[in-house]
Amino acid sequence: MELFVLGANHTTAPVEVRDALAMDAEEMSQFVRGIRERDDSLAEIVVLSTCNRTEFYGSAMDVDAANKTLREAVAYHKGVTYLQNGDYTYQRAGRSAAKHLFRVAAGLDSLMLGEPQILGQVKDALAVAEQSGGPGACLTRLFQCAAHAGKRARSETAIGRGAMSVAYAGVAMANKVFGNLSRHSVLLVGAGETGALAGKYLAKEQPEDLVVVNRTHARAVELAGKLNGRARPMDELDEALLDADVVVTATASREPLIDAGMIESLMKARSHRPMVLVDVASPRDVDPEVGRLDNIFLYDLDALEQIVEQNRAARSKEIPMAERIVEEELDFFFKWYATLAVTPVIRALRGSFEEIGRREAHKHAKHFHRSDREMLERYTHALINKLLHRPTIRIKELNQSTADGLTKLSAVQDLFQLSVEAPESSRAESDDGHGSE
Q1: DSSP state of 13
Q2: SS3 content of the chain, % helix, strand, coil (to 5)
Q3: What is the pLDDT of residues 91-150, one digit of tens each?
Q4: In terms of Cα–Cα distance, which of 11, 182, 32, 23 is closest to 109?
Q5: Does residue 183 share a domain with residue 155?
Q6: Considering the domain boundaries, does residue 295 fall inside one?
Q7: Of 46, 101, 225, 253, which cross-links 129 as Cys (Cβ 3.0–4.6 Å)?
Q8: Are residues 290 and 171 in the same domain?
Q9: Which of the four pLDDT bands, split at 50, 70 and 90, describes residue 25?
């Protein structure tokens, strides 16, 4: 049984191809159920689909046959042939496939280095597949180990720290000024793509009030509904500014919407309470002179991009440490993977029972005459043989080329808490960094 991945992501496929291949949770569930019902070349399968990638992880005896099955199934399910000729795809097997997933979970393979959402998406992909009968012991453990690698990368390195988009950087700067936004009012001017992204970040901070202003009022209403905020028309911008502690502007206006005179008069009415203005528009929505006023904190696109670039450089320095974590977790996984064989499991099970038998015989030996102690040992050994006879036969009958067989081998290890040693050949293969490739 070999692990593999077939996928397309931001490095191999343009956005229109990625969009055509993308699957939501319901589609992923239907796909997994359908392929499990129609084909037995795949022992296990999990689909990971985000805005930047759609990947199919599996285990199979014949990886080439499994990949052919997947390509045909995607063409049938999605009605596109982008996976058929391989122009947009990559295919990896064994340790290389596992490493790819671990790097994805750690944020090392993302369009935005250290991207925070992918770890949750890896966990969700496994949960969706489990509900549809997709993964067995191997892929379940693989995804769990990948998630652990991603968690370690974020907690033990700074690869996920610092804003990597100007919209998020602006929200982060507002948080620095006010500590948090839970007792402050927020105004979002502009409901386009950039405004919507900034609004999403703002909404996560749970401000006391979130107002959206846009030239097309219907779009303001629509976005405000998504953000659990409220909309106001553009001709009420002055009144909206009066109440706002944080203002984020992202319009396509050719001229500044906010000038120094406007803000100066508003600050008097506000008793000079601090105000943060985040201008992510180009051309600018806020006249630079506004930043010279007292108690005004103005961050324009140039300042925010400088912050993002500093954060990007800082994250890049963390790549070697994150890669080491990935390798450590890969070694851990493949040491377990190499134990999924009948003989090591039987040997560990018998060894565990025999150790318990020796301890119990030694503990109770004092209650027996010296001449009877040898008989006690023989009786203990015979009892262990009887107890393990049927389980040993059943374990030997397990088919290691199926997900069911490997899942049951894994279950025996978990139920009896066995310390299973990999066969010498598998251990050497894992130690030299080649895994199961």
Answers
A1: S
A2: 60, 15, 30
A3: 999 999 999 999 999 999 988 899 888 999 999 999 999 999 899 888 999 999 999 999
A4: 11
A5: no
A6: yes
A7: 46
A8: yes
A9: very high
Whether residues 249 and 106 share a domain: the answer is: no
Indicate whether 289 and 422 sit together in one domain. Answer: no
What pLDDT does residue 267 have? 94
Tell me if the pTM is above 0.90: no
Instruction: Measure the CA–CA gap between 299 and 308, rounded to whole angstroms.
Output: 13
Q: Is 8 helix (H, G, I), strand (E, B) or coil?
A: strand
The token pair at 298 is 């103005």
Length of the chain: 437
Give 171-205 pLDDT, tens digit per residue. Answer: 999 999 999 999 999 999 999 988 999 999 999 99
Same domain, 28 and 108: yes
Do 188 and 147 belong to one domain?
no
Q: Quick one: pLDDT band at residue 395, thresholds 50, 70, 90?
A: low
The active-site residue, picked from 15, 51, 65, 313, is 51
Closest to 333 in 3D by CA, of 152, 145, 148: 145
Q: Sort 280 into a burial class: Cβ within 10 Å, 0-12 / 13-18 / 19+.
A: buried
In the residue annotation, 51 being an active-site residue is answered as yes
Write out the residue range of the structural domain in which residue 48 sits. Answer: 2-160+318-330
Judged by DSSP in three states, 94 sits in coil
Of 22, 80, 90, 16, give the one whose Cα is nearest residue 51: 22
Name the residue among 219, 181, 189, 214 with its Cα closest to residue 280: 189
pLDDT surpassing 80 at residue 397: no
CA–CA distance, 427 with 422 (Å, rounded to integer)? 6
